[in-house]
UniProtKB/TrEMBL annotation:
UniProt record, GO biological process: tRNA wobble uridine modification
Protein name: Elongator complex protein 6
InterPro entries: ELP6, P-loop_NTPase
Pathway: tRNA modification; 5-methoxycarbonylmethyl-2-thiouridine-tRNA biosynthesis
One Pfam family named in its UniProt record: ELP6
Source organism: Paralvinella palmiformis
One cellular-component annotation, GO: elongator holoenzyme complex
Amino acid sequence: MFIELNNMCNISGGVQIPGTCVLIEGCHGADSSFVLHHFVSGYLKSGFNLCFIGLSQSFNHYNSVGIKLGASFIDARENGNLVYIEALKLLGEEILKYESETDMSILQSSKLLHFENNNHSGLKKLYHHCKYCVQDLLTKHPDKPLLLVIDDVSVLRLIGYDSLDVIYFMSYLRALMSTYCGCLVVQTLCDTTGEDQDKDPAVQHIHHQSECFIKVEALSSGYCKDVHGQITVCSRWPESEAMKRAMQYKIQDKSVIFFALGMSGAVL
């Protein structure tokens, strides 16, 4: 776990405030996955409950990275603290189920892609599966904090779901976490260089509903071997003052070094 990042996010003891949401956004080609690994490894090493919705990487990938950070996905799953959901596999099974009924134009119908008021929606079935997994985790370990993670929600847009369906899906997950006093961490990729109004409506919705927004971006000056990028944290936790902090960072094999803007040893 990266103590400096916890301090930037105003998080005490590595545990987010129950019922809140953290959005991690990677911009301009910057890899924000180290922030995601920070939250995940912190929960697993403490024996907390984790429900992981994988849309971007495999279970083995996260297990390999987790081992470097001292947190084994395999051990956590065997101990009943972790549920890893292969979301693309579940959504793909829904598509294959209806493929024989008609041609591929069904993908444009409400049966598979539209969330609201439709029991055939793949996203709705994914939500109910997540709900079941969360309830199962809390049944086994009711006294442990709960974290729900989505590793790249922008994948849902790439495979055909429109912004409104993603908004519904995320709203249901947010409500689920509020019900069970859990925390939601969402990662997304931003391909635009414009302002907020140019972003996808689904990303805007998650941004406005998040108590903590973490933006990771490459240096505007270009590549530097000693400074890999800049991280900006905007937090508005309940019962605390809103704040905005920015630092630069360098990713190492098993850790991340953070330093004030322009204060890298390579610069001074």
